[in-house]
Amino acid sequence: MSQETLFLDSGQNQEAVPERKSRSRLGLVITGVVGGSLVALYAVTAPFVAPALRKICLPFVPATTAQVENVLGVLRTRSGTLVDIGSGDGRIVIAAAKHGFVASGFELNPWLVWYSRYKAWREGVHRSTSFHISDLWKVSFAQYSNVVIFGVPQMMDQLELKLTSELPSTAKVVACRFPFPTWVPEHTAGEGIDTVWVYDAKTFKSHLQHGTTTKTAEQEDTQDSHT
Ligand SMILES: C[S@@+](CC[C@H](N)C(=O)[O-])C[C@H]1O[C@@H](n2cnc3c(N)ncnc32)[C@H](O)[C@@H]1O
Fold first, then answer.
1. DSSP class of residue 62?
2. For the segment 107-127, what is each residue's pLDDT rounded down to a tens digit?
3. What pLDDT is recorded for position 180?
4. Is the beta carbon of 107 within 6 A of some atom in ligand 1?
5. CATH homologous superfamily for 65-218?
6. Could you read off the pLDDT of 152-170 as tens digits, one per residue?
7. Which residues cross the membrane (predicted)?
8. Ligand 1 pocket test target in 49, 87, 159 with most atoms within 8 Å of CB
9. Closest Cα to residue 147, out of 194, 94, 92, 193?
10. Nearest residue CA, atom 19 of ligand 1?
11. Whose CA is nearest to atom 13 of ligand 1?
12. Number of H helices and number of E strands within the chain?
């Protein structure tokens, strides 16, 4: 190889080095942006998907306007503390606070809790509301005199036992869309998916104390049809 060729070759290599460096920097930036976006996407979506992977799947399905109205309607003569178990985006808690309740929400999804706090602040009820990032099975609801739950049928029997042992006998419980399996409601309001059932703690606690189980009309019908 002539000296001239060597000279030309080394000149080309020197030009290629900065080009290679800038290409690898661009590669790093792209990797960073794609990786960061995937991590952010995971952080946002995981809390919404996680409930589906739990033993009892309780997804985020917000209450309809009619459902919220029915809840507030059946509690219109009540006051004091209220809790929404699995408070979602905070709509029931915020509406209750606007009706004079000191209202709290317990919710597993941190995004929904932060959003609820922001919405409560924006709607001017942040002083009479509180939102907690908590698993409903790991907290006690003993301090609440009004309890609201929009659950799923698979969890209602366990929740019945939990609330029976925790709540004072002055409490009222409102179930949205799905009733409790053995408690007898004192009344219902609304229809279809907006139905709410109201339960008096004095009644369901006295049944427990007397060691009796209450039967819904449906269970009695089923039993009758087998005899
Ligand atoms: C059917 S939504 C009801 C939302 C709200 N209460 C409403 O009526 O608009 C049920 C909520 O419970 C939350 N959730 C699910 N599992 C939970 C758990 N173990 N502890 C607390 N909240 C839970 C879900 O993230 C969801 O927001």
1. P
2. 999 999 999 999 999 999 999
3. 98
4. yes
5. Vaccinia Virus protein VP39 (3.40.50.150)
6. 999 999 999 999 999 999 9
7. 26-50
8. 87
9. 92
10. 135
11. 86
12. 7, 7
